[in-house]
Amino acid sequence: MNEVDLAAFQTELSRLEWIKMRKAELAEMEHEARSAIEEMLPMMSTTLPNDKIVGRVNGKPVVEWRPTKSSRVNIKTLREIFPKVADYCLETSYGRAMIMIEPSE
Question: CA dist 47 to 42, 56, 65, 67, Å?
Answer without folding.
Answer: 9, 17, 11, 11
